[in-house]
Design a protein that fits this description.
Elements (H helix, E strand, L loop, with lengths): L2 E5 L2 E3 L5 E8 L7 E7 L6 E6 L6 E3 L7 E6 L4 E6 L8 E8 L10 E2 L3 E5 L2
Parallel strand pairs: 2-11
Antiparallel strand pairs: 1-3, 3-8, 4-5, 4-9, 5-6, 7-8, 9-10, 9-11
C-alpha cells in the first residue's frame, strides 16, 4: 500500500522559511522521480519542483527559482522542499507526487494528501 505522510506546512510571515517533508512507503522510492505541486485558491494545480530518482536532475517553476530547493533522501524514502523568502503568492496546498520516470514527471502515479502553506502577516 502506497503511503505519503507530508509535514512541515503552516503559517509563516512574508520573507520567512518553511521546510516540507514527505515520508513515503509502499513503492520503490529510489526509482521514482519526485515532485512537489501546489494548488492555490482559484488557480490550477502547478508543478513547483521535480527531482530525478538519483537527485542528479532538478527542475523548478520560474516563480520559485532561487528561493526553493528540492532534495531527497533515498535511504529514508523521504522528499523535502526547503522554501525561503516566502511570498503571499506562495500560499497554497502543497502536494508531493511520484512519477515512474523523469520523462513522465508531468503525469504522477501517486499523490500525497497535501499540506497547507499560508504566507501572511
Amino acid at each position: 500500500q502506497v503511503q505519503f505522510v507530508e509535514s512541515g506546512g503552516g503559517l509563516v510571515q512574508p520573507g520567512g522559511s518553511l521546510r516540507l517533508s514527505c515520508a513515503t512507503s509502499g513503492f520503490a522510492f529510489d526509482t521514482y522521480a519526485m515532485s512537489w505541486y501546489r494548488l492555490a485558491p482559484g488557480k490550477e494545480r502547478e508543478p513547483v519542483a521535480t527531482i530525478s530518482s538519483t537527485g542528479v536532475l532538478v527542475n523548478y517553476a520560474d516563480s520559485v527559482k532561487g528561493r526553493f530547493t528540492i532534495s531527497r533522501d533515498n535511504a529514508k524514502n523521504t522528499l523535502y522542499l526547503q522554501m525561503n523568502t516566502l511570498k503571499p503568492e506562495d500560499t497554497a496546498v502543497y502536494y508531493c507526487a511520484a512519477s515512474s520516470s523523469w520523462t513522465k514527471r508531468g503525469r504522477p502515479d501517486y499523490w500525497g494528501q497535501g499540506t497547507q502553506v499560508t504566507v501572511s502577516s
